[in-house]
Design goal:
Largest sheet of chain B: 2 strands, antiparallel
Shape of chain A: globular
Number of helices of chain B: 20
Largest interface: A-B, 38 and 33 residues
Structural class of chain A: mainly alpha
Number of helices of chain A: 21
Radius of gyration of chain B: 21 Å
Strand order of the largest sheet of chain B: 1-2
Oligomer: heterodimer
Strand content of chain A: 5-15%
Strand content of chain B: under 5%
Largest sheet of chain A: 3 strands, antiparallel
Order of helices and strands of chain A: EHHEEHHHHEEHHHHHHHHHHHHHHH
Strand order of the largest sheet of chain A: 1-2-3
Number of strands of chain A: 5
Radius of gyration of chain A: 23 Å
Distance between the termini of chain B: 28 Å
Helix content of chain B: over 70%
Order of helices and strands of chain B: HHHEEHHHHHHHHHHHHEEHHHHH
Chain lengths: 534, 486
Amino acid sequence: MIETSSSIPWLSLITFLPLLGAGFIVLRRSMTGPDEDQAVASAARLVALVTTGAVFVLTTILYFGIFDPNQEGFQLVESATWIGSGITYKLGVDGVSVLFVYLTAFIMPVCILASWTAVKERVADYMVAFLVLEVAIMGVFTALDLILFYVYFEASLIPMFLIIGIWGSPGTREIFARTVSNRVYAAFKFFLYTLLGSLLMLVAVIYMYLTAGTTDIPTLLETPFTVEAQRYLWLAFFASFAVKMPMWPVHTWLPDAHVQAPTGGSIVLAAVLLKMGGYGFIRFSLPMFPDASAQFAGLVFALSVIAVIYTSLVAFAQDDMKKLIAYSSVAHMGFVTMGLFTGTEQGIDGALFQMLSHGFISGAMFLCVGILYERRHTREISAFGGLAKSMKPFAFFFLFFSMANVGLPGLSGFVGEILTMVGAFQVNTWVAALSALGMILSAAYGLRLYREVVFDPPRDKEAPAMVMNRREYALLASLAGMTLWLGVHPTPTLDVFSVATRPISTQVTAAFDRLDADAEETTPQLAEGQPGHD
Amino acid sequence: MIEPFTDVVQLLPELSLSILAMVVLIASVFLEKERTRTLSLLGAAGLLGAALLASSIGGRTEAATLFGGAFSSDAFAQFGRVAVYATAALALTLGYTFFKLEKLLRPEYVVLVLFSAVGMGLMVSSSDLIAVYLGVELQSLCVYIMATLNRDSRRSTEAGLKYFVLGALSSGFLLYGASLIYGFAGSTQFEAIAAASYAEQTSVGLIFGLVFFISALAFKVSAAPFHMWTPDVYEGSPTPVTAFLAAAPKLAGMFLFGRVLVQAFPGLLDQWQPVLGLIAAASMIVGALSAILQTNIKRLMAYSSIGHMGYALMGLTAGSLSGLTGMVSYMTIYVVMTLGSFACILMMRRPEGMAENISDLSGLSQTRPGLAACFTVLFLSLAGIPPLIGFFAKLYVFVAAVEAGLFALVIIGVLTSVVATFYYLSVLRTIWFAEPTDHFVREHDPVLRLTSSGAALFVALGLIFALGALSNAATAAAASLFPALS
């Protein structure tokens, strides 16, 4: 039924394995009475961990054993008939997507473990939501059909909506003279914001389908669109991915969603869900609409620089730890969009690397906040202090990840940021210079957070000493290991990227050259045309 | 000699349903009231039989007209009849527990459903203005009475009366339009009208007649701005009747709409496209905005259906094969989602009676996880969120509209579906995020449980197995209205 290039449909297996776990949990719950909640909860935790763990093992085998990093184009392609008339079920990975698949597979067990004791109510529902979410994310990164991609892209909203809305933090606010709980507000904002952007993309997808007669991504990559059409298509795709990224000024859903989501939700949101936007840019916007990308690069640069500087300043002013990290995410994503639209090899590779490293670092930062929140039930920066004495191992890890977030050389954050800036320097010196300012600002808010939480004298002298458990050690250590490895030895990872990004970079650079050539052609014409008006 | 006989064979489903209805009517006089269950099962079996019969005899390609052009037996009519009878059968069985507990068990209901099914069968296959009117009236009169089934309830009688008065007005529109069309085209048959619509000099009278006709049909499918009756009738009618009139007559009306426009007025595409586009846009906007403030779930479903008619009409507005295909697929999927949702709504029962407010669903995910899951899947599908099948319904009509260059309509459709998602999500928020209140009575009606879970499963997994088959069948049905293609 499914035609594959290898003997096992690896990607389908990885994508749909979590559904098996989810089905098992649902079955287990429906077979028990109402007084067996504890048994169901621990079974659900275990099943979710085993399933995501199995996905991780399979992905590791796939990445190190089966995937050929030197081969250009898509590998492990699987296809099956689906709707017909040019729309098929088709999966495959290249150097870009395989790393995001790996990131997802790595982060999901981390999320499950981070929620091990933090989530106490409706544990089975929570685990099912996470497993379904993993299916959707894996689907996004492996889909080679535009409609299939869209289906997964949107489907990821449903479990995330429930995760924020059900297990979010308490508190209410006033909207239109009605009292609404914060988490419901955040869940709605998250869903509707993303949906609006995505539906505009859907219209563009339909247009491309009607033009090319198929939604097969490899075919579409070779379909030339007219410059006029590219412009509209680019804008429609931009609407979707810019919201997802998120870019300034459509980033406002992110701080709300992050603050309200439970720890596991925050981790997956920052580490993986945001990356869908960047993945969309590299997979669709740049290679399919290179001319439009070159034309709109200025817009993207402007928005990116604003994001880097403005949201860094906003982050500095936050009282809530999660909000601070959320704004810092927006700033880091500014580097990503800037790097992508330079069209240079360094810029694109740096942007992808930045996304990957931000996945591990921001995940770890939210995990740190989650560890504190579970013990003190507050995220106020001012409620903490003196952790350097009362919680030494935590202080170490928190320093490690804060430094990685700031972009300390030797850790992964530095590699991505320096490469994107090298890329930007070749295209526009001002953009590079201004974004460098952002790096300084990130140090400012990062160090301020660290000082107030760890070094300042404790506000609450009576607060009991806090101890990390072995599960938390293991989680932080594994994330720290990834950050260190990526930072010290980034070459193998960059090599995997660059096989896939080189052709894209060539395409976009050519488009930039065409744009410059056009500009040179038109300028003299205008000059000659001037006297005619007199 | 032979010709009339084969014509009669083609109408066997309608004939046998009429006979069955009369048998039920006579039997109900002699049987005890407790036997109504038997009668309603008999009626449902008859409808299913009629659906099977229609699927086996219809779909002729050669000489597709019957009785001198009054009816067609093409694939479009076949698809429509099968869908209408199956829908009616399901809607008939859905109501049994409700009627029993509300002490409304009346055999007349079965008779009325059967007769209105016959009317709808005629609607989807008629190819003559007079036959159209016969079908529409037979269907409508039955539904007016069904709306007032609960004679002692003020709401129910008000709903029926309102429906009747406005329905009569729209029938007047229909007749006036038909007479104008007849006057200016010289015939009541679609084929002859189509020929007149291609005339060099488009006559204003024909366009006038067409506009009246479109208004009447828009009333029947509850498209804005002819939708005023919908919320009150939905709310006032007994819930199983609401389920019936949200599904079957809408399907039949939309199929009739498609046939009239494509088969009788292909030459006036430029004239009816903007009219229909306006109706579609108005329906989508009214449906999305008005639903937000509703607190009663039946009223919410009413506005939701107005919005959905807008999307289906968007496909029709394209006026192309893919547009008509999109409309047919949309309506089929819409009917499944609607019947499933109403099966869920019929399970909202407290010991003291039916619950109809959205707030009654508070915390349903904790008290009744199964029912909550069905509600969630069906409502997300109504909102058109992938991977649920409601998304693909929207995809088909959007593809057709983009193909026809109706970008303004598509953008309105996109924006309104974001607004519509908001109110569907508001229901889900009550189900998932609110604290549980009173529990519903655990339902033992297997039909309701099967329908709700079956519809939810179809909606959730349909993208794997149903899409290909559905789009093939819908394309075949739609293609039979385009003579150049078949």
